[in-house]
Predict the structure.
Amino acid sequence: MTDKEADQGSNESIVNDAADTAHSAQPFWQTKTLAQMSRDEWESLCDGCGRCCLQKLKTDHEHLVRYTRVACRLLDVSSCRCSNYRQRNALVPECITLDADNIDQFAWLPKTCAYRRLNENRGLADWHPLVSGSTSSVHEAGISVAPYAMSETYIHPDDFPTLVIDLPGD
């Protein structure tokens, strides 16, 4: 089993557990703060949209982050999952690890991101896999980058500004 399959298997398990929980007690994301979550709970918050893996541009005079269609070379653009999640920081040193200690620093995350939504007390979106019970709901809702992302492997950095996009739902 690859790292990617192991991570997806863990995520599938949490999604299924969350769907079962919906019929009984409140789900963990409604009862715990981000800091109180276990590693598996934290990781399950990732909806698999791939938006955080897109290259971003910011100019000195702007306070806005502009997303591009250009994805990190490790992002599998069809599944919107990292192809080497466990070693991503070694392979892509600029990859940022989100954790409860630094989530307040990540205003650059898309407004649709579960980490940002929960940090802002907005709850999870209806299309989030933990709510819907389906890992494909993020794709069906048009939130994932799968239809338009392209690997940075094929794009020269000078071309990034020509590939700026507005994220659907953001």
In short: The chain has a mean pLDDT of 87.
